[in-house]
């Protein structure tokens, strides 16, 4: 029936109904051209140079004085605990030839191969009492001084001693340290961690 109806309708004819309303050309801006023009204008106005200087200044300031490790205060009571660095290998460790040297499930203590030869001393670099204590109680040979706040560069210049910084609290979080000064040192195949109360010193800020 459908075929009969189509046959009876005769051939289809196209008609031109003319223009219905206004027509507008489609204009798509070249995105790369727009970006190029914007950058050219920024360069000409000095905006790019200003932005680069500001970025360099912010970066230098962050290097000179990193953001303090959050949640670390001055020790009000002494704490001591033992930290076991032993880990369990999750997957086979292989050498360059593909041979298994440490099978999965093996418990490995890093101290067996890389002993901690220097104490790790964590302190607030803005606390004059802690800095004075660290300088008097340690030497460059037996301890590494690690800041949780303050400027390592300013202290290196003032004390003529190398200072490090616990970026983003990686080490203090790893050892469970909540207050400073704190000391981490090796005892056999474990690490002894202590948070110390400094007697006779005030928590003054520089």
From TrEMBL:
Q: List the InterPro entries hit by this protein, alphabetically.
A: TraW (IPR014114)
The name on file for this protein is Type-F conjugative transfer system protein TraW
Query: Organism source for this protein?
Result: Sphingomonas spermidinifaciens
